[in-house]
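Encode chain A's predicted structure.
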Amino acid sequence: MEAGKCVARGGLNGLPLARLVAVRTLWAVSIAAVLWGSIVPIQLPLDTGVTWSDKVIHAGAYFWLAALGRLSLPRPNGGFWAFWSMFVLGWAIEVMQLYVPGREGSLVDGACNMFGIFAGLYMVKLFSPPLGLPAGGFSFVERRPILPHKGM
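Encoded structure for chain A:
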């Protein structure tokens, strides 16, 4: 194994350790920023003058969070965990906003969150081979197709 590489469970060679730590740190800071921006009570309504700008912000934030989540979890099931963690976060925030003065949770906001999550995960999947994430059924350790065992 090369120095500075992190080996994820399942034998997949992950991102270099320093990059993995940086991406996970950025993901955690981004989650904290979205949580803080969504839960802090506001006194004045946010008016950008653009119709549906709030929905674009929702989709963009969850696009970013889902993409970082997938990059933070370089395992075959990383997309599953990135999806469900952001799904739960998005809907939990929408419910919490019902109890925060000046905020309101809505199904449309939640739907925009889900659109952002799907779009973020799709973009990472689309560009996964250059990023070094698992693509198809190939092992990044042995560089050959993974074949089922005869005894299974």
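The longest strand covers residues 13-16.
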